[in-house]
Amino acid sequence: MSFFMINTDKANSDTHEQEMFSRPKASIYGNVTATNEAFFDMKKGDMVFFYRDNVGVVAYGFIEQDVFEEYNTTPYEYAHPLLNFHILEEPLDYESIVGKPMGVGACWKRNVSKLGKYVKENGL
Known about the structure:
Blueprint: E1 3-7, H1 14-22, E2 25-29, E3 47-52, E4 56-63, E5 69-71, E6 77-92, H2 94-98, E7 112-114
Parallel strand pairs: 1-3
Antiparallel strand pairs: 1-7, 2-6, 3-4, 4-6, 5-6
């Protein structure tokens, strides 16, 4: 199992976070760039943490299938359906997930990142 962090982009728009949480899915929108290319490494069973800028990790779930879905919307959307999706009652900070601090007032600069060896056991 691999671990990923995806930015909900709530700071720019409530819409994407609402869409991902209402129909549990991990999504990226628009053009594929270096900030979101890790999305295509997600496989069935991988764990995805949802990070809201300046708040922390607000939800998590598990990738349902290896194949992602594409939607010809504006902006274009790529989505991985999720299983066992949970919205946290209290956000977790970055350090709780990866075991090292991000920095005061920091924002998650990548839309999707593979966390790899940095994830620590946290009882989720």
